[in-house]
Amino acid sequence: MKLSVIIVNYNVRAYLDQCLRAVLEAMKDISGEVFVVDNLSTDGSVELVRDSYPGVKLIANTENVGFSRANNQAIRLAQGEYVLLLNPDTVVGEDVFHKVIAFMDAHPKAGGLGVKMVDGTGRFLPESKRGLPTPSVAFYKIIGLARMFPRSRVFGRYHLGHLAENDTARIEILSGACMFLRKKTLDEVGLLDESFFMYGEDIDLSYRITLGGYDNYYFPEARILHYKGESTKKSSVNYVFVFYNAMAIFAQKHFTRKGPDLFAWLIRGAIYLSAAGAIVMRFLRRALLPLLDVTGLVACLLITRHQLDPGFIFPFRTTLITLPLLLVVCNGVIGAYDRPVRPSKAFSGALFFGLLATVLLTHAQMNAVTLGHLLLFTGAAALVSLVGRLGLHLLGVRSYGWRSLDRRRILTIGSLEEAEHAMALLWQTHFGLGRRSISIRKRWKERRASAIA
Asked: For position 291, what pLDDT does the model report?
């Protein structure tokens, strides 16, 4: 048997379905087997494999045992000359396996291989090729020098920015999203280290492959799509702790075992300092829009406060706390803080806030509701919400751009059924598919119904 494909799944049923379709298509004319190891998913993933892919070997765990242990379960059963560890949120091309097997056959000293990965928008993923995260490399990444000088041979070694993305090259670290491994090499250097629950195990195994006298290759002639980060939400605080703890385990295992304790503490301290910084940045990104809304509303109310009727002037506590908090709640309920940014939701949140603020404050102060008060609150909220979002959009802040998937032109080449499946996958796995995509799906269904009739 030539190839054993191993996919570890956790609650990404839609991705797994697409991944298995592509894998089985790519394995035509190849002697191989496919394993799916499910870590106690609750989204129907196990039923999907059992019902739709009876030829796939399913291992359904009764607990979430982590990425390393789950892969090792299947590796011990694998019969292939080569083993592929593949994330479920990937799509492989029809010729990927043929190209990779031919390359590995021609390079007997190749112990592992990584391919060129692009994300769902077609952008190259720099983790396709990585260098060993030695203390100096990790330090350059932590303090930001790697980002400032991405193509430097010294500062940019984490992602090997000095290597062209379309050139085959020997590298040090493979990505766990798609690792082609020689089974003989695994038998010699050992399986994945199960002390890594998730993240870091690919770095550890890649390093042990090189220590065993084998080479790791980056092979861009084979390309896969990696949606990146759906198995675990990379923006979550949990991700930050798990990822940086894995880096600490790797550093402790390979760089501080024989060194002084002070060196170990310095590495661990740098890692957790970086983790703390990452958590703060994630909080600031989430809080940016509410902070802009609060600041803008307070400024508008303070500027216009003297123009209100004397009987309707409210205390500063209301200006500084009650009304800003009410605006944040209204925008949150409407969905004005969701991304991609939609100006219509910001305006709806402002209108909701204006009505609610006018009614509540008028009731509290026993005054009649006036059109002027309604226009003041609604106009102020709409102004600060739209201006703040427009400013972020014009500054080119990618996370707050106004473009969404329903503004993009998507070309589907294939049958009507394949097009419907692709749109269904996008609908289930991506935010931002709005009314236009709904109308497209309706038109497809109408055409299909007329064709059948």
From this structure: 87
What domains can be seen in the chain, in order of their start residue? 3-129+165-232 (3.90.550.10), 284-400 (no CATH), 405-452 (no CATH)
| Cα gap 28→138, rounded to integer Å | 42
The conformational region for residue 37 under phi > 0 = left, psi -120 to 50 = alpha, else beta, is: beta
pTM for the model: 0.67
* CA neighbor of 330 nearest in space, from 305, 369, 358: 358
Q: Mean pLDDT in each 10-residue stretch from start to end of the chain (453 residues)?
A: 96 93 94 97 95 96 92 96 96 95 96 92 87 75 77 83 91 92 95 75 89 95 80 51 63 60 61 70 81 83 64 61 84 82 82 79 58 66 80 72 56 71 61 46 58 56
Question: CA of 449: how far to CAs of 146, 305, 420, in Å?
Answer: 55, 61, 13
What's the N-to-C CA distance of the chain in angstroms?
A: 47
* Alpha carbon separation from 52 to 18, 30, 35, 58, 375 (Å, rounded): 12, 21, 14, 12, 57
pLDDT for 431 equals 42
Q: Please state the three-class secondary structure of 117-174 as a single string.
A: EECCCCCECHHHCECCCCHHHHHHHHCCHHHHCCCCCCCCCCCCCCCCCCCCEEECEC
The β-bridge relationship of strands 169-171 and 57-60 is unpaired
Contacts of 112 (CB under 8 A, 6+ apart): 174, 179, 180, 181, 182, 185, 205, 206, 209, 214, 216, 217
